[in-house]
Amino acid sequence: MPNPPGDPTARPDTDGPETGSPDTDGSDTRRPDAGGPDPVALYRTIRLIRRFEERCVALVKAGEIVGGIHPYIGQEAVAAGVCAALRPDDLITSTHRGHGHVLAKGADPDRMTAELMGRTTGLNKGRGGSMHAADVGLGILGANGIVGAGAPIATGAAWAAVRAGADRVAVSFFGDGAVSQGVVLESFNLASLWRLPVLFVCENNGYSSTATVEDMVAGSIPGRAAAFGIPAATVDGMDAEAVFAATRECVERARQGGGPAFLECRTYRFDAHHTWEHRSFVRYRTQEQVEEGRRRDPMDIQGARIAEEDRARVDDEVEAILDAAVRFARDSPKPDPSEALDFLYATGLRPRAGVTTSA
Amino acid sequence: MPKLGYLTALTRALSDELARDPDVCVFGEDIRVGVANVTKGLVQRFGPERIVDTPLSEQAFTSFATGAALSGHRPVIEFQIPSLMFLVFEQIANQAHKFSLMTGGQAKVPVTYLVPGSGSRTGWAGQHSDQPYSLFAHVGLKTVVPSSPADAYGLLVSAIRDDDPVVVLTPAASSMSFQSVNLDELAPLPLGVGHVARSGTDVTVVAVGHFVGQAVEVAEELADEVSVEVFDPRTVYPFDWHGLAESVNRTGRLVVIDDSNRFCGLGAEVVAAAAEEMRLVAPPRRITRPDGAVLPFALELDRAAQPHRDQLVTAIQQVCKENR
């Protein structure tokens, strides 16, 4: 495993005053020039995502979030570690299981919750929902409903960064299922050929929906990137600091013109592929397997690295943030049905309605 | 007046926009050499950073352009074969087209997808002869099919400048056409606005792409027996319903000649809209490819599956005989 986290005792004291939750500027987690990650800030991001997701699952059960979600629970260290190594002007593309990435990159939990609940105050004004949450101003080019679809988009955004003479990077998150998508492999080729500043982050959570990696992936996951000449490594995706360290190395190289990189983050999906599993009888892993997979919890791993009182304080702060977010979403207006076709075209073009106007 | 070739008009539009706007760039296969005769010379003038030859990875470079567009570029992608549009339907219809709505207006994706030589190219058989404009219209992509060199120039320029993704399908059958034009008068043409290519009073013929010229010829041939108006929508989607209604409400009769497959094709939509909303005094007619057509290779079979001007003559005569 490359880039083991440094000696915690050698880490500079970063337990200073919190500069804000990740929903504001997240500056406490984005200090690529500092000696290492802020362990409290990393814990805070993990905790925020964990509790956000648990609340969302409850809101799905209560019918307040329609359509369900793909819970990110168990994988939080990947989003937290990667995004802590990014700058605000860096870009990400996310996945159907994207809440963690969107929050870790700095999206406002209020507006994220409102989006999932279909309110006009949502990140996407209620037009995207769970699978399309985006905040373009924060460099979040969107969660995406098609597996692997973000890889070429991030690669093109990285090309644009080079063209602009900027040293920003693009990160494409995807799961283990995406490594069997042709468009992802094509993107590896483009990124390597043109030495683009893009980091491909594969979250190997063990399952593409219900199928295991062993049953679906020939060869190795990092081997696919390596075949295109992309430096590829596997990292402990349950350890946010390990993810951070590996990401920072890749990102710094990319900023200096060193081209793309690939990280396989080994993690585990604690909850369902999608919340419909909570009501269906899909069985593809045993209770024992789930318990084994959950044995290492990224929240506990990072939580054990910080002082008890910090952990308690962060936990309280996160609950307050999420209480406020749910309240904000519930109090926000639902969209007017007459606006169903708003934003269909960037130019404001209005298409015909579904019935004839003279009917 | 100088003669402007159809493909030269496309080159001129690309060149003018590349010169005017540094955010414009071109992606595609063999475009530096200019195999499709549209991008020849661009790399010498604008450099390899803006005229980018891609590997044969249509799906990746189509969404790659989306990523570049989300970062402020205005990419044009050239596709050598119309059927490649099926391969990249996900990237166009399901990604680029949906970003504006799905993000609640945060994102725009100004990419132009240019297929010079769409439709049948004699002898190119099943997988090189599609004319997929109805497919893109169905999912809501802005889609233009220019019928003349001047239109090709004006519509491609507007497509590149538009803030939404636009599909530009230029008919293979038009590729060798020429037009006498004053080059100084070439100008952008607005998307979504059709025009009357020939005025008439008895029947409206809606023709798309290379059929516009053929319809005008047919109209001249039939001038002694019937007064034919030819309406060229220029943009397949959004369709200029106002312009069409103005014509059909005057003539009361409608024929559509459309290089789509019949089922759910543009012709079906035009006829349905006219039946619902316009004044028709006789049942309308449409001339199309057959339902679900796959163009066969042999010349006789290929021709049999394509709309033909003789069918247009018959349809016009039939529609003008009939009354409701």
Automatic annotation (TrEMBL), chain A:
Keyword Lyase assigned: no
Gene3D superfamilies assigned to the protein according to its UniProt record, in alphabetical order: 3.40.50.970
UniProt KW keywords: Oxidoreductase, Thiamine pyrophosphate
Domain of life: Bacteria
Cofactor(s) annotated in UniProt: thiamine diphosphate
InterPro entries: DH_E1, PDH_E1_Alpha_Subunit, THDP-binding
Domain Dehydrogenase E1 component span(s) in chain numbering: 46-337
Region (Disordered): 1-39
PANTHER family: PYRUVATE DEHYDROGENASE E1 COMPONENT SUBUNIT ALPHA (PTHR11516:SF60), PYRUVATE DEHYDROGENASE E1 COMPONENT, ALPHA SUBUNIT BACTERIAL AND ORGANELLAR (PTHR11516)
Entry protein name: Acetoin:2,6-dichlorophenolindophenol oxidoreductase subunit alpha
Species annotation: Streptomyces lasiicapitis
TrEMBL record, chain B:
Cofactor(s) listed in the protein's UniProt record: thiamine diphosphate
Alphabetized Pfam families for the sequence: Transket_pyr, Transketolase_C
Boundaries of every Transketolase-like pyrimidine-binding domain copy: 4-176
Domain of life: Bacteria
Record flagged with keyword Transport: no
Alphabetical list of SMART domains matching this protein: Transket_pyr
Transferase recorded as keyword: no
Keyword annotations: Oxidoreductase, Pyruvate, Thiamine pyrophosphate
Protein name: Pyruvate dehydrogenase subunit beta
Organism: Streptomyces lasiicapitis
